Known about the structure:
The structure is a single chain. The chain is mainly alpha-helical. The chain has helices at residues 11-27, 30-34, 42-60, 65-88, 93-120, 123-134, 142-161, 164-168, and strands at 178-180, 186-188. Strands 1-2 form a two-stranded antiparallel ribbon. Strand 1 and strand 2 (186-188) form a beta hairpin. Helix 1 packs across helix 3 (42-60), helix 1 packs across helix 4 (65-88) and helix 6 packs across helix 7.
Amino acid sequence: MFWKRWFKQNADEQSVHDLYAAAVAQARQPGFYRDFAVPDTLDGRFDMIVLHVFLLVNRLSGKGEAAARQAQALFDLLFADMDQSLREMGVGDLSVGKKIKTMAAAFYGRSAAYRDALKSGDEDALRAALSRNVFPEGGANERQLGALAAYVRRVYEELEAQPIDALMAGTADFGAAPALTDTGSETAKETL
Length: 192
């Protein structure tokens, strides 16, 4: 696998990297941490990446064999990146596999909770899933939790409207990054 870094990636590999880069870039938007009280920690950032990768994987699911391969490749890339990050942080080789296994289980659990809540339209279930996973120690007030749930719902619906061909080509539009206005109303505005 190492030699692949020295040669040009094929179009499928590049599109997966582009999707993952879009998910990570959106997950790093300051509004999540500044306005919505997502913990600006390793766990908080992991949860935001998982949330955005989930939204992409969910959109690709059930859309044919090529989309299923793309979804699997995106999942694999997420955990290859997590593996590399853990090693760069100095986690020992013997511990990395165990930590990745725990992270993968977390991804599956969060995905099931988010998918069920989004497909059923149960906003209380979505808020509960976000509260339990993104804010396990509290920290977000009802307004922040509601705004994050509204953001997730909006992105879910907007991704559903995006053509699968665009996602297969590596283009994902998450829309405006979230932010809360000073007046207390929830809005989404673009942050550059």
